[in-house]
Amino acid sequence: MALSETDKKILQRLQTNLPLTHRPFLDLAKELELDEDLIIDRVKSMIEEKYVRRLAPIINTQAVGNSATLAAMQVPEDRIEDVAEVINGYSGVSHNYLRKGKNRELPLNIWFTMSAPSQEKLEENIKEIETRTGFDVRMLPTTKKFKIGVKFKIY
Amino acid sequence: MTEDLDIKLIKYMQDGLPLTKTPYKDIADGLGMTEDAVIERLKVLLENGKIRRLAASIAHRKIGINSNAMTVWKVPSERVEECGPIMAAFEEVTHCYERPTFPGWEYNVFTMIHGYTDEECENVIESIKQKTGLDDYVMLYSEREFKKVGVRI
Predict the structure, then answer these.
(1) Which of these, A83, A65, A82, A73, lies nearest to A120 by C-alpha position?
(2) Is A60 part of a structural domain of the chain?
(3) In the prediction, which pLDDT does A151 show?
(4) Are residues A99 and A126 in the same domain?
(5) Which of A15, A17, A141 lies closest to B46 in CB terms?
(6) Alpha-carbon distance A87 to nearest alpha carbon in chain B (angstroms)
(7) Tally of domains within chain A
(8) Which of A145, B29, B95, B99 fits A140 for a cystine, CB–CB 3.0-4.6 Å?
(9) Do the beta carbons of residue B134 and residue B72 sit within 8 Å?
(10) What domain range is A119 assigned to?
């Protein structure tokens, strides 16, 4: 299913807060000059087709008491698959990527984010990954936050 | 008491809003609350930042935003306060954080940049360089996505 111009218009708007009203999709319809049923229908399709992962509260885990960190590892090519799999197995891991330096080479190649109910539990999980994979994990938590705001220009 | 209710509400909603004409009413019915109470709690949670946004999480790679340059910068410590907001002001920069350094790793400011193309990302990086005068950085493009799920409690 390719996205129509209407779909893109809806998608762009959906990236910011939904109206907190009795009929939020009707209010969106008025904003976007579209039909309420159409919006609901297109949202359903876009979720089914996995353009939208979910339409839900985006949670600030630290505000609800969790500890989190970015972490990086230096893993040789032949071990990347199984190390990635070990990391993925933790439900607190939300992002896990293989990265490569473009203008410079950097040895750290596996980068992931992990959240846990406490700092203790977070460090326990990290140590466990080290033990299970045989590689060090470098924790790079946030010391200062300048911005977190995921919003894409959809065109 | 309210905290437990908030957690209950977030957990109930975190997999997705009911796609009906009255989603908050439907949530209220599911939880044995009133619609007004659900809307009220959501407003509070948005205000206090426990919920960042009540919105769509978009599969950006699926819509063609495949370039993801996590760019790490070496910023002199006395310039971090000044440079952070300059970098954050760019729309394409979705995250901007200061992180610790250690022997062998001197990059202390991280900017996550998304674009449809590498060129798009690199234009932003050039602009950041111009505005800050910084020149010590590494663009760490994502080569593979092993896992990407939304945060859940």
Answers:
(1) A65
(2) no
(3) 86
(4) yes
(5) A17
(6) 9
(7) 2
(8) B99
(9) no
(10) 67-140
CA-CA-CA-CA torsion sign (A38, B91, A107, B149): negative
pLDDT confidence bin for B1, thresholds 50/70/90: low
Q: Which residue has the higher pLDDT, A28 or A149?
A: A28
Q: For residue A136, which residues of chain B lie inside 8 Å, CB to CB? A: none
B121 with B115: CB under 8 angstroms? Answer: yes
Tell me which chain B residues have a C-beta less than 8 angstroms from the C-beta of A88. Answer: 146-147
The pLDDT of residue B61:
87
| Tens digits of residue pLDDT in B83-132 | 999 999 999 999 999 999 999 999 999 999 999 999 999 999 999 999 99
The string of pLDDT tens digits covering residues B20-78 is 999 999 999 999 999 999 999 999 999 999 999 999 999 998 999 999 999 999 999 99
Assess whether A22 and A73 both reside in one domain. no
Q: Domain holding A107: CATH number?
A: 3.30.70.3460
* Shared domain check, A76 and A41: no
The verdict on residue A146 lying in a domain is no
Q: Are residues A102 and A129 in the same domain?
A: yes
A39 and A74 co-located in one domain: no
> What pLDDT does residue A63 have?
82
Residue B14, classed as helix, strand or coil, is coil
Tell me: ipTM over 0.85: yes
Assess B55–A contact: CB distance below 8 Å, yes or no: yes
Domain identity same for A35 and A93: no
Q: Which DSSP string corresponds to B87-115?
A: HHTSTTEEEEEE---BTTB---EEEEEEE
